[in-house]
Design goal:
Elements: H1 2-10, E1 15-20, H2 26-38, E2 41-46, H3 56-61, H4 66-75, E3 80-82, H5 86-89, H6 108-111, H7 115-130, E4 134-138, H8 142-155, E5 160-164, H9 184-189, H10 191-205, H11 211-223, E6 228-236, E7 249-259, E8 262-272
Parallel strand pairs: 1-2, 1-4, 2-3, 4-5
Antiparallel strand pairs: 6-7, 7-8
The structure holds adenosine monophosphate.
Residues 20-21, 27-28, 30-31, 137-138, 140-141, 164, 166-167, 174-177 line the site of adenosine monophosphate.
């Protein structure tokens, strides 16, 4: 992989890189389409990274439809599919890890201990191998996207990061490899995740910018679905991801919820247009 990439760079070709854990869906394909348009060569990686799973069962149950993924990668005109084994990425004797930045402390970082250390480590290793011109990540995993932007700025300044907007099912559910695990009833219940974001977004746009009121609305919407259990809902600064008490200007809404045994996350960026009830 290293020598292939070195040759591309020597020839002056630009490299677009889309790292994934496979079980490809339209969200991944959107990232690939951006990469295809903007680069001479497109690299897709598929690696279910064991170090970023904080629950063994989530790792073992993670879908791995490799033959289908390879077909989709070809159809999306990826030039390379890089699918290393865990032993290749973490050979015996591997010791060094990358400490996740402060951005990783809250939200996913708090509920999934060690998750972002695993992400930061694997992304650093993949970047060292591929050394892409542009790295493509999805907005759906908003905290991960911010962390990767920061990591690249700090450690790989030659690479540019592009964050691609979330691709959704027609009914609004954010595409995710984990959606395939939902039963038909859970699939219906899962809609509350995006509905909670939308309801909160409407509230903010109508001028209600107090965090407490916005969060209460999100909780109420999630509670409508019998199989849903809210893990966290948050109104945060889009850059620092720190909570804001009063939404002013651009804010990001974050949500994580269990639907049965499947954990889903989603996010929405909202602009507070008319802060008419923003006294705090
Ligand atoms: P994953 O395979 O879930 O690790 O995701 C690989 C990349 O695809 C990450 O950068 C994700 O943020 C991105 N991604 C996942 N789902 C979506 C989606 N629904 N829309 C856009 N990007 C996504």
């Amino acid at each position: 992989m290293q020598s292939e990439m070195l040759q591309l760079r020597r020839r002056g070709l630009t490299i677009g890189f889309v790292p994934t854990m496979g079980a490809l869906h339209a969200g991944h394909l959107r990232l690939l389409a951006h990469a295809r348009r903007q680069n001479d060569r497109v690299i897709l990686s598929i690696f279910v990274n064991p170090t970023q799973f904080n629950q063994r069962q989530d790792f073992t149950r993670y879908p791995r439809p490799f033959a289908r993924d390879a077909r989709l990668a070809r159809k999306a005109s990826a030039d390379y599919l890089f699918a290393p084994t865990a032993r290749e990425m973490y050979p015996p004797g591997h010791q060094t890890t990358v400490e996740a930045p402060a951005l990783a402390r809250r939200w996913e970082g708090a509920y999934r201990p060690g998750h972002f250390r695993g992400v930061a480590t694997v992304v650093t290793k993949l970047l060292a191998l591929v050394q892409p011109t542009i790295l493509y990540v999805g907005e759906k995993d908003a905290q991960q996207a911010r962390l990767i932007e920061q990591l690249v700025e700090d450690l790989h300044p030659a690479t540019r990061v592009i964050v691609v907007p979330t691709v959704r099912e027609p009914d609004g559910l954010a595409m995710s490899s984990r959606n395939t695990r939902l039963s038909p009833t859970e699939r219906r219940d899962a809609l509350v995740v995006f509905e909670a974001l939308q309801a909160a977004g409407r509230l903010i746009k109508s001028g209600e910018c107090r965090r407490g009121v916005v969060l209460r609305r999100m909780r109420t919407v999630v509670a409508r679905a019998p199989s849903a259990r809210l893990e966290y809902a948050a109104v945060v600064d889009p850059r620092t991801l720190e909570p804001v008490t009063v939404a002013r200007g651009q804010v990001r809404l974050l949500i994580a919820a269990w639907i049965g045994r499947t954990r889903l996350i989603d996010t929405l960026r909202v602009r507070c247009q008319r802060p008419v009830r923003c006294q705090g």
